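Hi L.,

As promised, Transcriptional regulatory protein, C-terminal domain protein:
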Amino acid sequence: MVINTMAFGGDLTNVNLDTTIATVTLIRDQVMGPIMIMTRTLTDCLAQKLYQARVDDVVLLPFYGAALIAQTKQRLWVYSRLTQPKVVTREHDYSLHVEGHQRVGEWQIDEKNYLVTKHGQQIQLTPKEFQLLMYLVNNRGQVLSRDQLVNGVWGYDLLETSRIVDIHISHLRDKLEDDSQHPVHLLTVRGFGYKLV
């Protein structure tokens, strides 16, 4: 059963973190909508645990109402695009020259419809995973530091949370690479960051 809805966690300073992580992990496969967690502080360890549980976004308290509403609407819009019926196009129909379509090896990326396929099969990515993939695609061949990726995808500096990038790269490798332990396209450049080839 898939629930097309929005899920919000409470203020993490008032609830048990392990309970929240367990709850998010249980509902993630059933909720085809953004999961956003609110907290007063965000440490590297907390961010890592939340993103490993596949939380879409962390809202730092106090927040501004209008900004939160806009952020929530944007997340819902992205998910609504992901849940629209898709027609899987045969691999040879994709071209590097078609506007809005990119190809990386066996991956076909439809930017306009937030769709990624591999060998003709749709790959389910979270909005952040898709944004990270597109940032890498748009900077293909360049070595990008974790800070560059955080700024480019999340749009702001996250102190001590470069592990967020590592976690999301790991998720992308698990979903897209044939062998996530020996990636062909999502490469680690030791001491510098990542690059897509």
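The chain has two domains: 1-84, 96-197.

Thanks again for sending the construct details.

K.
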